[in-house]
């Protein structure tokens, strides 16, 4: 394991992307750059990444935080919310439910004075499965909730049976008809619920329902992700009584009402891990401004084992690599294990490592869709069930490749930075769902990425 040490002065950040001060509804924002029809990235390679990049707030912490704002009739103010399509979608969903959602002074203010329509319609759920996170708070606030059942997605079937079972154990009547899940409860009651499998949004949804239930709820085999902890902290600021967040058992003592609050979204560990992988892959030298090393140690220690030099400083991390990369063995698991959301990115890195690396994907059943696209660029990868065997180092050549899901897209962008020639990554609306201003951030680090229609 490399020595991690505080490093001398840090280059300034590659420039903030915060829009100027304006008070407009999220829905009034200019049309999404996220234009699912035609956008692509054209990437010239190979390029070394150098400089500093500002890490944005975590999409997967902001999504449940948006839903939590439905629990009170008072305004909630969220800071460090990333500008990504999934949160614009969530903002539209809250607006359709009856909340006012706006950006003010770089923060998001959500004010759910009344609940007009306690449901998540199909056209929103189909683009973002995290819409189901409104079920818990709606059940808790108004005693009813309806959402179109999220279909599967590229990475797997992704059912929500644990979410439903938790609501039922809290006394909700839940029906599944015509592709919708409908739940009703006069008042939820505290329950003792065991998750058969660790579920991040399952834990979050159950917590969002339990905070206003009558009595105490105990969630066993709960997810320990930092985003779950960040949500619990927000709910506590709103007056909820929660203990054990971040552990495998969370205890929630129901209260009768919650009040407004101001809350900071934690930095995005997956975005930070993505840029860290890109820095190591390109033999670069990058400072991740605002990253919190303590919430993605599994990735940082893997990068260090492979030969990257990771220097940790309060509020920033420098990742650089100037020697050869060693092979690695990765096995994804719930936090604090290696995150499935960084599996595709480290697999691309492994194509540059000496020897055969093994990557096991244990969370989702179909999360190797980046592999055939990488193979078209010259990577040598064999997939056997849940495991991929990556032989390296491989010289990658630019090609036209297709993004299939959010994190697979990121792995193809990293490959484009490595490859000789031009790589066109198609369907980058997947990227826009969860990466804030990705091409601007990469180009400020010396990449040459162009968004083309
Ligand atoms: C969250 O998804 C994240 N999304 C995912 O990030 C992340 O990959 C995943 O957790 C795992 O860390 C958000 O937080 C919005 P799970 P989630 O419930 O909660 C099975 C990204 O790229 N399961 O922890 O949907 C499920 O099929 C996204 O940002 C059930 O069987 O994942 C999976 O195999 C992708 N029944 C496993 O559990 C359920 O009711 C873990 O899923 C729920 C889950």
Structure description:
The strands form 6 sheets. Strands 1-5-6-4-15 form a 5-stranded mixed β-sheet. Strands 19, 20, 21, 22 and 23 form a 5-stranded mixed β-sheet that branches. The longest helix is centred in the N-terminal third of the chain and has 13 residues, at 85-97. It has 2 domains: 15-56 and 267-452, Enolpyruvate transferase domain (UDP-n-acetylglucosamine1-carboxyvinyl-transferase, Chain, Alpha-beta prism), CATH 3.65.10; 59-264, Enolpyruvate transferase domain (UDP-n-acetylglucosamine1-carboxyvinyl-transferase, Chain, Alpha-beta prism), CATH 3.65.10. The radius of gyration is 22 Å and the shape is elongated. It is 28% helix and 26% strand. Helix 1 (59-68) packs parallel to helix 7 and helix 10 packs parallel to helix 12. It has 14 helices and 26 strands. Residues 1-34 have low confidence and may be disordered. Strand 9 and strand 10 form a beta hairpin. The chain is α/β, with parallel strands linked by helices. Bound molecules: ligand EPZ. Ligand EPZ is lined by residues 60, 63, 130, 156, 158-163, 197, 199-202, 340-341, 363-364, 406-407, 434. The site of ligand EPZ has 22 residues, from helix 1, helix 5, helix 6 and helix 12.
């Amino acid at each position: 394991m490399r020595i991690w040490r505080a490093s001398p002065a840090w280059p300034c950040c590659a420039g903030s992307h915060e829009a100027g001060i304006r008070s407009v509804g999220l829905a009034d924002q200019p049309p999404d750059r996220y234009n699912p029809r035609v956008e692509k990235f054209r990437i010239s390679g190979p390029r070394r990444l150098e400089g500093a990049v500002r890490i944005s707030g975590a999409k997967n912490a902001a999504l449940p935080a948006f839903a939590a704002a439905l629990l009170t009739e008072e305004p909630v103010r969220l800071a460090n919310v990333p500008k990504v399509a999934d949160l614009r979608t969530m903002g539209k969903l809250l607006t359709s439910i009856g909340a006012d959602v706006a950006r003010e002074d770089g923060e998001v203010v959500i004010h759910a004075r009344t609940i007009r329509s306690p449901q998540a319609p199909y056209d929103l759920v189909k683009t973002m499965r995290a819409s189901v996170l409104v079920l818990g708070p709606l059940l808790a606030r108004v005693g009813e909730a309806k959402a179109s059942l999220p279909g599967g997605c590229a990475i797997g079937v992704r059912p929500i049976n644990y979410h439903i079972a938790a609501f039922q154990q809290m006394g909700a009547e839940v029906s599944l008809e015509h592709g919708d899940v409908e739940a009703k409860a006069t008042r939820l009651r505290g329950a003792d619920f065991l998750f058969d499998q660790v579920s991040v949004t399952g834990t979050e949804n159950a917590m969002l329902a339990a905070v206003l239930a009558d009595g105490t709820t105990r969630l066993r085999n709960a997810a320990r992700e930092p985003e779950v902890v960040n949500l619990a902290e927000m709910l506590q600021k709103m007056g909820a009584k929660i203990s054990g967040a971040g552990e495998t058992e969370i205890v929630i003592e129901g209260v009768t009402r919650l009040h407004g609050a101001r809350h900071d979204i934690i930095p995005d560990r997956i975005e930070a891990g993505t840029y860290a992988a890109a820095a190591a892959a390109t033999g670069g030298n990058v400072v991740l401004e605002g990253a919190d090393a303590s919430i993605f140690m599994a990735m940082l220690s893997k990068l260090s084992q492979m030969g990257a030099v990771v220097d940790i400083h309060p509020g920033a991390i420098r990742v650089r690599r100037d020697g050869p990369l060693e092979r690695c063995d990765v096995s994804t698991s719930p936090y604090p294990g290696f995150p499935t959301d960084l599996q595709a990115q480290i697999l691309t890195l492994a194509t540059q490592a000496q020897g055969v690396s093994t990557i096991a994907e244990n969370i989702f059943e179909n999360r190797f869709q980046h592999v055939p696209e990488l193979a078209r660029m010259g990577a040598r990868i064999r997939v056997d069930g849940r495991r991929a065997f990556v032989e390296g180092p491989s010289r990658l050549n630019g090609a036209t490749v297709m993004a299939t899901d959010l994190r697979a897209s990121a792995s193809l962008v990293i490959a484009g930075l490595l490859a000789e020639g031009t790589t066109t990554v198609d369907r980058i609306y997947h990227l826009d769902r969860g990466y804030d201003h990705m091409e601007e951030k990469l180009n400020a680090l010396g990449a040459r990425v162009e968004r083309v229609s």
